[in-house]
Amino acid sequence: MFKPVELFKIYFNKNNWQIISANSWLFNLNFPKEYLQILILLENDDWETFAAVKSLNLPKYFKKLIIPPYGPRTKAKACNYGLMYAVGDYLVIYDAE
Q1: Which of 67, 72, 76, 89 stands the most exposed, by the fewest C-beta atoms within 10 Å?
Q2: How buried is 29 (Cβ within 10 angstroms: 0-12 exposed, 13-18 middle, 19+ buried)?
Q3: What's the whole-model pTM score?
């Protein structure tokens, strides 16, 4: 039986205030939680945002990923890095800006 996995990739870079708004709708998605994978992409030196994400009590379908410190700091690089950890059949990229 086909079991679609919905993957959300969310890139935060010095935008810890946006975590709260994203957090509210991410917990209320109308989709079976066993088919969700949510990757939170964080820059390696953005300790403030990392601390904000860490303070949340995230379910097991959330995964925090630290982007390696090479090359430019772009959303495209972060999303490409996140693809290495993706298991979903469908992809949604949420732009936190």
Answers
A1: 72
A2: middle
A3: 0.76
